[in-house]
Specification:
Radius of gyration: 19 Å
Mean pLDDT: 91
Low-confidence stretches: 1-14, 20-27
CATH architecture: 3-Layer(aba) Sandwich
CATH superfamily: NAD(P)-binding Rossmann-like Domain
CATH topology: Rossmann fold
CATH class: Alpha Beta
Number of strands: 11
Oligomer: single chain
Order of helices and strands: EEHEHEHEHEHEHEEHHEHE
Distance between the termini: 62 Å
Largest sheet: 7 strands, parallel
Helix content: 40-55%
Strand order of the largest sheet: 5-4-3-6-7-8-11
Number of domains: 1
Length: about 280
């Protein structure tokens, strides 16, 4: 495998990155993805890998980060493995510095990292509320700031945050999840407005009911799969790969006159509310 090993200490933790050669980087798009260890983040990593991109796999679990980076390599891309906590500003900055030192500056940033901390709001521990927001919202801000500065300096770049239908319809008993996703959608719009004149575009994509490792405990139950499928007008549960295709489009030149949009990818779920109201014709 090409590349070399770099190790950096961040607050008594080791961050390891497998870095491609500078010669390789000049020919490849550089994509930074948080939460790339599974689900939508991993699907985005593999989508870009298939076209030869260099992909920075940011994932808190070292083994998972390394595994996805290896998958990226196997598909013809080149994977960096960065096992960090995206809520740690020093760790995020170190990733950016490590990439810049090796000549890799992000063309695309995708923030998919989240740590679910479910619970009822009347009894939710403050620590659970804070932790979900730290990974989801604080992490979004930190990576956007770190890699967005490179994009601003270059005069181009695309940022895509993974939102949720929970940003549009409150999802009960999920702690701060809906509040976090709603804030992420607005952060994407704020960045789009502030950075438009620099050539940097920003979006959010709000998936609906998607089958991923994080939701497999639900969709492995036939009654849940059937019941939820019926709630989407398109009659099925979506896939992580479908979300990755939308993300890829928004970040591409094909969407060059779009910015600030939140794209619902939910099989029609959010707009179908009146289908479930008694008395309709």
């Amino acid at each position: 495998m090409s590349g070399r090993q770099l190790e950096h200490d961040v607050k008594d933790r080791t961050v390891e990155a497998r870095l491609p050669s500078k010669e390789y980087q000049t020919k490849r798009q550089v994509v930074v993805i948080t939460g790339a260890g599974g689900g939508i983040g991993r699907a985005c990593a593999l989508r870009y890998a298939a076209e030869g991109a260099t992909v920075a796999v940011i994932e808190s679990n070292p083994d998972t980060a390394a595994a996805v980076a290896s998958e990226v390599d196997a598909l013809g891309g080149h994977g960096y493995a960065f096992p960090i906590d995206v809520s740690d500003p020093d760790a995020v900055h170190l990733v950016g510095e490590t990439m810049r030192a090796d000549g890799a500056r992000a063309d695309v940033l995708i923030h998919a990292a989240i740590q679910r901390m479910p619970g009822h709001l009347d009894s939710l521990p403050v620590e659970s509320f804070d932790r979900l927001l730290a990974v989801g919202l604080r992490g979004a801000f930190l990576v956007a700031q770190e890699f967005g500065r490179d994009m601003i300096g270059r005069g181009s770049g695309s940022i895509v945050f993974i939102g949720s239908t929970a940003a549009h319809l409150p999802y009960p008993n999920t702690g701060a999840y809906s509040a976090c996703k709603a804030a992420i959608v607005m952060l994407a719009k704020s960045l789009a407005l502030e950075w438009a004149e620099t050539g940097v575009r920003s979006f959010s994509v709000s998936p609906g009911m998607i089958r991923t490792p994080m939701t497999e405990d639900l969709y492995s139950r036939p009654e849940i799969l059937a019941g939820r499928s019926k709630m989407a007008p398109l009659g099925r549960i979506g896939t992580a790969e479908e979300i990755a295709e939308i993300v890829h489009f928004l970040a591409s030149e094909a969407a060059s006159y779009l910015t600030g949009e939140d794209v619902l990818v939910d099989g029609g779920f959010v707009i179908s509310k009146f289908m479930h109201v008694p008395g309709r014709d």
